[in-house]
Amino acid sequence: MSPKDAVLQAALERSAALVRADRAALERLSHPNFTYVNAGGARLSLEEYLETYVSLGDVRWEQQELEQVQVEVYGEAAVLVARLHDRATHQGRVFDAYFQTTQVYVLFPQGWLCVAAQTTQAPQE
């Protein structure tokens, strides 16, 4: 598998784990010092990310699709940029929205781990 394909696979696994609310898989696919900046501008550590989007139950993902994916590999680092189509329930309210995401991956002995990610509102198409 090429490095680009491996990074894409890791991103798809992260999305699937989010939909399944699989905390263990998200921990396995993320670096312990992972940082996330959400569309509202909040900066979250890995633990805060997992609590907010998996453990608390305020958000239940039905789907997270990656579209228009571009992956660039720079040695043992890679940047993935994609359009996200999220369908979820947040505090009982259904939302269906599009976002842009930038995810940074680094190759470690256990594979490509996400070290940082940021999501912003996607422009209307």
Automatic annotation (TrEMBL):
InterPro entries: DUF4440 (IPR027843), NTF2-like_dom_sf (IPR032710). It comes from Calidithermus terrae. Gene3D superfamilies: 3.10.450.50. Residues 13-113 form the DUF4440 domain. This is DUF4440 domain-containing protein.
